[in-house]
Amino acid sequence: MSVERKEEAFGVVLVTGGAGYIGSHTVVELVTAGYKVVIVDSLVNSKEECVRRVRQVTDKDEEWIVFHKVDLCDKGALREVFSKYGTFHSVMHFAGLKAVGESVRIPMRYYENNLISTFNLLDVMDEFGCRKLVFSSSATVYGTAPLPLTEESPIGIGITNPYGQTKYMIEIILKDYFLSREKTESPWSISILRYFNPVGAHPSGLIGEDPQGMPNNLMPVVSQAAVGKLTEVEVFGNDYPTKDGTGIRDYIHVVDLAKGHVAALDHLVKRSAVYDVYNLGSGVGVSVLEVIEAMRNASGKKIDVIFADRRAGDLAEYYSDPAKALKELGWKTDRTVEQMCEDSWRWQSANPEGFKDE
Q1: Run of H or E including 150
Q2: Is the CB of residue 184 less than 8 Å from the CB of residue 313?
Q3: Residue ranges of the domains in the chain?
Q4: What is the mean pLDDT of residues 146-175?
């Protein structure tokens, strides 16, 4: 993808949740590919400092990467953003509450926020004639489907938490919405990206994962243990029927994931009235202990491990078949687990407290 693209030809992309972990890395790749970006983010789970860092990484100013503090549940505020720019080339939708454990404790907040924000976005997009959407979904929609997980695997069965249920519900909503408009004069084009376990950070060390409070995911826990913020890593289950007894997951470097979003957008805009679904993963399973060992090597630090009982709902293995994305998007992962840990460590060691708004 050429950086010589003209803004007149490719326009401005609206990125909801663009100050978050995956959204911010995708903004970098969009700008590198020649797009201008408008970010809307409520900053509930993110910091505006991240947007400033994205501008630093891309060497672009506030006119190229615009930020508006907007909660998508406020349709009026979202409409004002669209009114300001007229319309957008397309939308990438990352915004939403995302902590699995929290969603179990306060499910109604997740259903209300994630669904209403999507309803509002669809309404305003349609009102302003913007009908190309890339949606940030999740492999959680597969629930307990048999491995390996392909885009044809059943979804919605055995989902263990409200966060995953909201992703599944939004997929159903988007599919029905697409079908209702498919044969009209104003059809939509929608790309659903189901990704697996995003980890890593931008190689500059300027942006990375910055969980609020106690991290929920493995890599920030391991990184914080390496930097000394946590005393140890608690591993849930060491008696699974896997190569070392710990859970196996499909980890994907966040930069590879971000590039997958741009590839999906490129593919989407070339066609009309299409509804696509893609797995974004490596297709390779890596165990919890293998990730911890890779971080030990990357950081040179001692990382203590304690084992605890399995968590309810956790599966022994979970990994993708990403063949469709390679065939149709020309996309695949390039970065190894070692690189994921090296980049995570570069980010964490340079920013032990994450982002801090100035």
Answers
A1: none
A2: no
A3: 11-349
A4: 96
pLDDT over threshold 70, residue 7: no
pLDDT confidence of 8, banded at 50, 70, 90? very low
Q: Which residues neighbour 49 within 8 Å (Cβ) at sequence distance 6 or greater?
A: 355, 356, 357, 358
Provide the 8-state DSSP code for 304: -
- Catalytic residue list: 163
* Rounded-to-integer distance, Cα 203 and Cα 347, Å: 8
Residue 267 CA to residue 246 CA, distance in Å, equals 37
Burial 215-228 (b: 16+ CB within 10 A, else e): bebbbbbbbbbbbe
Residues 6+ apart with CB under 8 A from 59: none
* Dihedral over alpha carbons 88, 94, 97, 99 (to 10 degrees): -170
Beta bridge partners of 136: 193
**Mean pLDDT of all residues in the chain?**
94
Tokens of 247: 């859970």
Sign, CA dihedral 221-226-230-234, equals: positive
First to last CA, the chain: 34
- 148: which 2 tokens? 């390996």
**In the CATH hierarchy, which top-level class contains the domain 11-349?**
alpha beta
Residues 6+ apart with CB under 8 A from 166: 96, 103, 110, 111, 114, 115
Cα R_g (the chain), whole angstroms: 20
Q: What is the pLDDT of residue 2?
A: 34
Distances (CA, A) of 97 to 9, 20, 172: 33, 11, 18
